[in-house]
Backbone:
């Protein structure tokens, strides 16, 4: 990772994501996946167990805003879309972020958004992020594979197009926008899940570790 701007205060990190990055009490309350029931089901019982808080702690940084919304896509003309101006503006509500970590695209894959539509939306999202936060380092992750759990699952998502196509689009958009890539998919490691997508405690730990590798922590 290139050097982060030196600050007299702690670095401020904001998160833009979907259900994988939610946690009750830290993300928009009407769109939380990791609520008290899911925390019990997954073992992700405290915010310290989330991938993003583990990364923030590794930086000895502080959380700005985590604007992660369960079920949200990058694409779509909705206030919940990751490219929506409203969500992007919210990332700075606790002060301008030094780093923005973007973990989005899984629902576009799962809900079969056409690749060309996803590409256009991702480009729009990055353009708006750069225009709104010109001094922030923006890091976008590709989409790693979740391991199918044994036994019955309580949530299913089943994209008909290979997830790797969406990761390739993310790589291309990141390069063109001249932001930073956290290429989690390249490690080809499946993280532990409760349903093939949403990480349990061990899965969160693996995702955090992959992010840290990419951030050179």
Residues:
């Amino acid at each position: 990772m290139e050097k982060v701007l030196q600050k007299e205060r702690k670095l401020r990190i904001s998160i833009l994501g979907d259900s994988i990055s939610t946690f009750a009490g830290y993300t928009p309350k009407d769109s939380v996946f990791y609520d008290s029931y899911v925390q019990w089901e997954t073992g992700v019982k405290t915010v310290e167990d989330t991938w993003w808080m583990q990364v923030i702690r590794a930086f000895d940084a502080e959380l700005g805003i985590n604007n992660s919304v369960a079920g949200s896509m990058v694409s779509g003309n909705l206030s919940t879309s990751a490219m929506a101006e409203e969500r992007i503006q919210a990332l700075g509500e606790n002060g301008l972020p030094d780093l923005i970590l973007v973990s989005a695209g899984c629902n576009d894959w799962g809900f079969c958004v056409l690749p060309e539509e996803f590409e256009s939306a991702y480009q729009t999202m990055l353009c708006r992020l750069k225009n709104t936060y010109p001094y922030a380092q923006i890091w976008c992750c590709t989409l790693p594979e979740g391991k199918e759990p044994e036994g019955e699952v309580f949530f299913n998502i089943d994209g008909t197009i290979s997830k790797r196509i969406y990761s390739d689009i993310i790589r291309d958009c990141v390069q063109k926008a001249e932001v930073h890539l956290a290429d989690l998919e390249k490690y080809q490691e499946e993280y532990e899940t409760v349903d093939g997508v949403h990480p349990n405690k061990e899965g969160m730990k693996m995702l955090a570790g992959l992010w840290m590798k990419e951030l050179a922590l």
The chain has a mean pLDDT of 93. The radius of gyration is 16 Å. The chain is about 35% helix and 10% strand.
